[in-house]
Specification:
By secondary structure, the chain is an alpha/beta fold. It has helices spanning 44-51, 74-80, 97-101, 115-128, 146-158, 176-191, 203-209, 232-241; strands spanning 4-15, 18-29, 33-37, 59-64, 67-68, 82-85, 164-168, 195-199, 212-217, 220-226, 243-244, 247-248. The protein is globular. This is ABC transporter ATP-binding protein.
Length: 257
């Protein structure tokens, strides 16, 4: 088992009177894919946005590479090496691949961008991820397929010496062939030593690529177990009921009063 790169302990988050996350513990390990699963409203997006610095946490501790981390905004998360690929991808259709990958982080002087250096870095990043579906890094994003867009968004996230990459439903609305390309890319990220968090409702994808499965139920982390130790049916029960056999929340009759 690899060392934890990101450790969250006792995280709480409320929005006004609504307590969304309750004492959540969550661990991301270098070189592993951790699937974060849960029903709609379980708190997955809120947890990701807390990690990314979009939402301030109300309580709990975040450690990165063993050191206490204070994430007050997205810039703090990015400086640590945490990148998020959201479901809408946040790509600009009117720009090409290079321009999208360096959007807001362009290289060069105030009056002249170093186009050659950015193009070289974009090609090297795509090549390091064994991406072969993109013929030219100067292709406009508007001309790319859904799978190619997802690939560009992931490559953009790992371009900045990332240590942890969180992927929000990366295979949603993709066809079979495009899903295969993205899942292969997810595994390659882990093989390169990154800690990968895969948020997905697709259990087939989860069991294919994830090393560990973390299940949120009504804002509580009810299980975080190796994929090989659980079945598809157990994970579904954890998602829908918060427990499955000895896993998850204690049964009412055994809970401490």
């Amino acid at each position: 088992m690899s060392e934890p790169i990101l450790e969250i302990t006792g995280l709480n988050k409320s929005f006004g009177p609504v307590h969304v996350l309750h004492d959540v513990d969550f661990t991301v390990r270098a070189g592993e894919v951790t699937a974060l699963v849960g029903d709609n409203g379980a708190g997955k997006s809120t947890l990701v946005k807390c990690i990314a610095g979009i939402h301030p946490i109300d309580g709990g501790e975040v450690r990165f590479n063993g050191q206490v981390a204070h994430i007050h905004g997205p810039r703090d998360a990015a400086e640590l090496g945490i990148e998020v690929v959201y479901q809408d991808l946040a790509l600009a259709d009117n720009l090409d691949i290079v321009q999208n990958m360096f959007l807001g982080r362009e290289r060069g002087g105030a009056w002249l961008l170093d186009e050659a250096d950015m193009e070289r870095a974009a090609r090297e990043t795509l090549a390091s991820l064994s991406v072969r579906t993109v013929k030219s890094v100067r292709t406009p994003v508007s001309a790319l397929s859904g799978g190619q867009r997802q690939t560009v968004a992931i490559a953009k996230a790992v371009l900045w010496d990332s240590k942890v990459v969180l992927l929000d439903e990366p295979t949603a609305a993709l066809g079979v062939a495009q899903t295969r390309q993205v899942l292969d890319l997810v595994r390659r990220l882990a093989e390169q030593g990154l800690g990968v968090v895969l948020i997905s409702h697709n259990m087939a994808d989860v069991f294919e690529v994830a090393d560990r499965i973390a299940t949120l139920y009504l804002g509580r982390m009810v299980a975080e177990v190796p994929t090989r130790d659980v079945t598809h049916a157990q994970v579904v029960e954890l998602i829908t009921a918060g427990r499955s056999g000895e896993l998850g929340l204690a049964r009412p009759e055994t809970a401490t009063v």
